[in-house]
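Subject: for your reference before the review

Hello V.,

The reviewers asked for a structural picture of the protein, and I figured it would be easier to keep everything in one thread rather than splitting it across files. Below is the amino acid sequence we used in the manuscript, unchanged from the supplementary table.
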Amino acid sequence: MGATAGGKTALALRLAADFNGEIISADSMQIYKGLDIGTAKPAPQQLKKIPHHLINLYDIERKLDVYRFAELAESAIEEIHSRGKLPFVVGGTGFYIHALLYGLDSLPGNAELRAGLDAEYDNPEGYEKLKILMRVKDPADFERWHMHRRKLIRALEVFTLTGKSITELQTLNKPQLRFPVVAWNLCWERAELKRRIAERTQAMLDAGWVKETEAVIGAGILKTPTAHQVLGYKIISEYLDGKTDFETMRARIVTNTWQLARRQITWFSNQHPEAESIPMPTAYEILKKKFEKEIRD
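And here is what came back from the structure prediction:
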């Protein structure tokens, strides 16, 4: 686990190759078909070399929530183990990883209430109203999830039912790990991570991200609520509409990606006590020996 552009995929591919492993993507957007460059999916040759799970599984119109992710990931873990292989969970969607490792929250829910909240707030205009509401009603959860519409709707559902924030309720109940794991949080100096983000953004643009966005727009995919949340595509669409120039577009993507990385850094530092912080860069051979010892112990 760790922030975007932190080298998680590259490290996992090497470890999986050396330790007879298969990879389970813990990225909330890589599961969708058609969003490839912008979600930094592994290259086709990498997907062929090491078996991957939860990538290119759903059409964009189908919603994946944390509950379904946990079910799919747990099923993949069992399947991989049944073949005598080692599962590697790899990604930056911390909420999903936490749900898998610690279980789904035991917080109350109400299907009728949730349907009403979805109808009212699970759209761009409703999302803006929801943020205004939650900033006042539940500032703790607003601070955690104001960039995640579905999570913020869930927070409002829990607050409506209990009068308390998810943050407060989770503090009262310390979760326990459901699996024996070796958990690594890849940590970079912030200046170096910023540089890597800028470098990767340029590489993604060079690889055809603008053309991919054109195809996504042409297929109507960008109009779906899910695709609308994926970082970068909306900014590129504004460039294609002539609303901004290329350099401004690139700079905005870098800035937004860095903002995402900062939120991920905070999440993994605070929500994953099981994870060992791994200072990066660290030579692969050192990490390989460390991993071998940890799974043996």
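For the response letter, the relevant points are probably these. The radius of gyration is 19 Å. DSSP finds 15 helices and five strands in the chain.

Happy to draft the paragraph if you're swamped.

O.
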